[in-house]
Amino acid sequence: MRILVVSDIHANPAALAAVAAAEAGPFDARFCLGDIVEYGPDPAPCVDWVRANCTAVVRGNHDHGAAQNVDTQGVSGFRYLTMVSRRSTTARLADADRRYLAGLPTTRLLRVAGKSFFLVHASPRDPMDEYVPAEPVAWADRLAGLPVDYLLVGHTHVPLTLSVGRTTVVNPGSVGLGRDGNPHARYAVIDDAGVTLKEVPYDVAATVAAVHASDLEPLAKQMLADVYTHGRYVHPPDLPHPHSGANGHAQGNGRPSGGYAPVVLTVAPPRAG
Predict the structure, then answer these.
(1) pTM (2 decimals)?
(2) Which residues pair with 164 in a beta bridge?
(3) Which residues, including other chains, have CB under 8 Å from residue 246's CB and lie 6 or more apart?
(4) What share of the chain is helix, strand, coil (3-state, %, to 5)?
(5) Topology of domain 2-230, per CATH?
(6) How does pLDDT run across 191-243, given as a tens digit for each residue?
């Protein structure tokens, strides 16, 4: 058994291309845990790659917001980035892309090589928005009545493996937008030996250049450049301080636009699991 798990790509094709290049070998399955779009500069290639290469995909809060063009208001932090990037994300996605995102399920339950997997963006209790502490007791509560070998989640952008009874909880971290001080593209590989949380550097400068070439507001460009470069928001003294909410994450989305050469992503189709 060999499974690639990605999440929170957030319209960053340079980061996704680095993961695809690093893991070009055969897999029994490729799973995407949502938030394919928003924040980053180019959502369409990321949607294309996921649609062509992933065995199972679930919808994240940003996928939902972009697909439904949910109105989000924010004056600071990641809520602000969600608001300003959503405007350009919807413009950069074709109608077929938005229909694809809208049609994604919020959960998937499937078996690969005799193991059971439950896929959800946030948590089984609240599939798109809940933030669950990295504590066994918290996840045990969410796993009640869900006897699976693996629970695969995203949303927090922080990699995690946690044993809770018979279940291994896995968060691969974020491919496209670090939130814990690590700017690399993060993902996970599950095989017969267990779970490996992995990371790979990517061309951050290309992503930052694409953001600066976009039509985002100057504050949003600086905020995103900080996050891409440092793996978290670094407040520059000459800009208003963005006060994020308790988790600093918008419940709905975020997106950008711009004119630049897209990164081409190619990976062989996954084998049947």
Answers:
(1) 0.86
(2) 167
(3) none
(4) 30, 20, 50
(5) Purple Acid Phosphatase; chain A, domain 2 (3.60.21)
(6) 999 999 999 999 999 999 999 999 888 989 999 999 999 998 776 444 444 44
